[in-house]
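Re: beginner question about structure tokens

> Can someone show what the tokenized structure looks like for a real chain? I only ever see the sequence side.

Sure, here's an example I had lying around. Input first:
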Amino acid sequence: MTDQTGPAYPPAGIVFVGVMLVAGLVLALLFKANPALTQALPGLMWLLAVALIYDVGVNILSFQGKVSGPMTMPWRFGGFFAGAILHVGLTAMLG
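And the corresponding structure tokens:
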């Protein structure tokens, strides 16, 4: 009775979703305080840059054998989408 019956969620994917949610929140607050940052790159491109940095880091760790494997596309999409929705929603609420 030690077999897992539920799905095994990859730790890298769960952490990625958390990172994207925090990044969406922080970027929305940062852009509210300093709107000039969005003139160089639009808001969601900053979020995409955070996702790229995290993904490259996970891939490097995966090649070194420290992480079970690279993230799959559903985790990448879900994490970015969650961060983007939070970012856009908070930006709209802040004005």
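Each token stands for a local structural state, so reading them left to right follows the chain. The mean pLDDT is 91.
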